[in-house]
């Protein structure tokens, strides 16, 4: 199949390489012309190094490459998704004629819409036809062909299977399911808890504390996810508990790394600058906080991360406030 991959960061480029290795014709879009030229010259996956981009992958800064393909994979940062989809529409390209796949993770801060909802709002005919690809999958490991397992989710089961078959190989296993709401929410919200996990590391607390963040974070994820229409069992699967564990514990997790920098005294601006990559949990935390307030749902960890990020709250004080909340049954 001919596939256009929109977003040439580490994850987008890694997925483009995977698809090319699976013998698909891949077009990789980088919004910045100079960056696209540099990537085309060096042919190395950005930020992680050590992995080459196959010569068969066409790299371009021209969105019209979509016209050459049957499928479109979105891997742009979530806060650029709407503008990217609008750019596609303004070019006169009809996404409803393509297989639309999303590996973008996030919840829009103004509208509180999930990724698939944003695409459906701009291209109504794609409704119930979008496929989300998500799960515990760091680009650093997938690029090295380390065994990885993810899920392909869509309300249209046939399309979920079609996407599974595009990506699956001997090191990248793909399951299918129909709960795209739960998968998108799990993929997005786990990044907020990963920031909390990084704070724990930055404060030099131990495994006990990290396990508490993961288990109680999962509780919050389930609580909010169900309220938004996700299925409870989804959050105990790959895009829920699986993704939550890998982002909270891994050295590769940019959200965990950001939390660690914050706990060590960096400002949010300094921490983001040092990362040199987008930590999706920052914007998602705003969305999650707003959703909790709007739906009157108790989200103590999310609320504390929000205060650390945007209210200059001391990280150690945030942990203390979590520990001294009114006792209750689990």
Secondary structure layout plus pairing:
Layout lengths: L1 E5 L3 H12 L3 E5 L3 H10 L15 E3 L10 E4 L6 H10 L8 E4 L12 H8 L8 E4 L4 H4 L5 E6 L3 H11 L4 E6 L2 H23 L4 H21 L10 H12 L4 H10 L4 H8 L5 H15 L4 H11 L4 H9 L7
Parallel strand pairs: 1-2, 1-4, 2-3, 4-5, 5-6, 7-8
Antiparallel strand pairs: 6-7
Helix pairs in contact: 3-4, 7-8, 7-9, 7-10, 7-12, 8-9, 10-11, 12-13, 13-14
Describe the structure.
By secondary structure, the chain is of the alpha/beta class. The chain contains 14 helices and eight strands. Strand 1 (2-6), helix 1 (10-21) and strand 2 (25-29) form a beta-alpha-beta unit. The mean pLDDT is 96. It has helices at 10-21, 33-42, 81-90, 115-122, 139-142, 157-167, 180-202, 207-227, 238-249, 254-263, 268-275, 281-295, 300-310, 315-323; strands at 2-6, 25-29, 58-60, 71-74, 99-102, 131-134, 148-153, 172-177. The chain is globular and about 60 Å long.
Brief summary of the model shown:
The protein is of the alpha/beta class. The chain contains 14 helices and 8 strands.
Keywords:
alpha/beta
What is the helix fraction of residues, given as a range?
40-55%
Number of helices: 14
Largest sheet descriptor: 8 strands, mixed
Structural class: alpha/beta
| Low-confidence runs of at least 5 consecutive residues | none
Oligomer: single chain
């Amino acid at each position: 199949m001919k596939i256009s991959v929109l977003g040439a960061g580490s994850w987008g480029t890694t997925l483009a390489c995977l698809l090319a290795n699976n013998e698909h014709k891949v077009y990789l879009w980088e919004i910045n012309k100079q960056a696209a030229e540099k990537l085309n010259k060096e042919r190395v996956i950005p930020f992680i190094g050590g992995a080459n981009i196959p010569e068969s992958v066409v790299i371009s800064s021209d969105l019209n490459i979509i016209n050459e393909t049957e499928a479109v994979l979105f891997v742009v940062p979530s806060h650029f998704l709407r503008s990217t989809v609008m750019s596609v529409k303004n070019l006169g390209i009809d996404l409803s004629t393509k297989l639309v796949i999303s590996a973008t993770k996030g919840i829009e801060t103004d509208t509180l819409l999930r990724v698939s909802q944003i695409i459906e709002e701009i291209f109504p005919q794609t409704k119930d036809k979008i496929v989300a690809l998500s799960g515990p999958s760091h680009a650093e490991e997938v690029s090295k062909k380390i065994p990885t397992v993810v899920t392909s989710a869509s309300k249209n089961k046939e399309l979920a299977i079609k996407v599974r078959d595009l990506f699956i190989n001997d090191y990248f296993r793909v399951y299918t399911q129909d709960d795209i709401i739960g998968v998108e929410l799990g993929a997005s919200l786990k990044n907020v808890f990963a920031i909390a996990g990084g704070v724990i590391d930055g404060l030099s607390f131990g495994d006990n504390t990290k396990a508490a963040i993961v288990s109680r974070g999962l509780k919050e994820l389930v609580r909010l996810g169900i309220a938004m229409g996700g299925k409870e069992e989804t959050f105990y699967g790959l895009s829920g508990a699986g993704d939550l564990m890998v982002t909270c514990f891994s050295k590769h997790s940019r959200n965990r790394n950001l939390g660690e920098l914050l706990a060590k005294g960096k400002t949010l601006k300094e921490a983001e600058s040092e990362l040199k990559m987008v930590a999706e949990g920052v914007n998602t935390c705003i969305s999650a906080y707003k959703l909790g307030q709007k739906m009157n749902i108790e989200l103590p960890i999310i609320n504390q991360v929000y205060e650390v990020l945007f209210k200059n709250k001391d990280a150690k004080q945030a942990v203390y406030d979590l520990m001294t909340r009114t006792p209750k049954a689990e």
